[in-house]
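ARCHIVE RECORD
Type: protein–small molecule complex
Small molecule: copper (II) ion
Source of inputs: curated submission
Record status: active
Notes field left blank by submitter.
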Amino acid sequence: MRCRRPLAFLTVLLAACGGGKDAPVDPPSSAPRTATVTMLPSAFIPFSTTIAVGGTVTFEFPPGIDHNVIFERQTGAPQDIQITRNASVDRKFTTKGTYAYDCRIHPGMIGEVVVVP
Ligand SMILES: [Cu+2]
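STRUCTURE (tokenized, with ligand):
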């Protein structure tokens, strides 16, 4: 029958990939392990920052103007950074995902950290 071979192939493929817990681990990430976010008067630069799991983002608060970094509540989100100026504050990300954050002082001042395996 014509469909026998494709079916056999599919069965093998499913057997190879269907393990779930036995699936191979992700290869090492090519994403950086560190990144820096700076702040203009009302913007995080860059808006989106990508790092590897276990990586650290440094938030650089400028002198002369207050900001904070409040993360959307979700599993793996780091501790918020309360109102700060003229300082660098690190946050480590140990779980893959996308973590949105904003500055509550400046409406529309938003950013995200994308943590990849
Ligand atoms: Cu701000």
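CURATOR ANNOTATION: Residues 67, 103, 105-106, 109 surround copper (II) ion (CB under 6 Å).
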